[in-house]
Design a protein that fits this description.
The chain is α+β, with helices and mostly antiparallel strands and 135 residues long. It is built from seven helices and four strands. Bound molecules: adenosine-5'-diphosphate and magnesium ion (MG). Adenosine-5'-diphosphate (ADP) binds next to loops.
């Protein structure tokens, strides 16, 4: 049975700054995820706050929004079989120290806040996040 999905991926400022776009894109495409749309943008703090709304009660919320708006990011729609779960597996754990070998966060993440990539955590959130950046 085919279960093609779309999910949202973001290459965060720390990874854009280190020119890791093509390395990260390669990891996705070699794992069978297709990039159906991609753009480089620089969002405002208000936009970052709106994107990360679910985290507004967390102690790290303000830093998180400052960080995501601190420089250019690359937002992408990934498509493929079980794309939401597959992307999360390819990304690795939130904290790069805990991430499995070969995952993007293990390879490139600097710290829990500068962890190089974002990925939608459910199909519902994937739809909302794609809409947020692409509609
Ligand atoms: P994920 O990005 O793996 O889905 P979360 O949704 O829990 O992780 O958190 C969103 C982002 O907030 C993380 O990617 C990370 O950059 C940041 N973050 C999460 N937990 C912490 C923390 N304890 N301290 C600082 N930043 C955090
Ligand atoms: Mg999350």
């Amino acid at each position: 049975m085919s279960n093609s999905e779309q999910t949202l991926s973001i290459i965060k400022p720390d990874a854009v700054e280190r020119n890791l776009e093509s390395n990260i894109v390669d990891i996705f495409t070699k794992s069978g995820l297709q990039i159906v749309n991609k753009k480089k943008i620089h969002i405002s703090k208000d936009e970052a706050s709106s994107f990360y709304e679910v985290h507004q009660s967390k102690p790290f919320f303000n830093d998180l929004c400052n960080y995501l708006s601190s420089g250019p990011i690359i937002v992408m729609i990934l498509k493929g079989e079980n794309a939401v779960k597959k992307n999360r597996e390819i990304m690795g754990s939130t904290d790069p120290k805990m991430a499995a070998p070969g995952t993007i966060r293990k390879l490139y993440g600097i710290s829990i806040d500068k962890n190089s990539v974002h990925g939608s955590d459910s199909l519902d959130n994937a739809k909302k996040e794609i809409k947020f950046f692409f509609e």
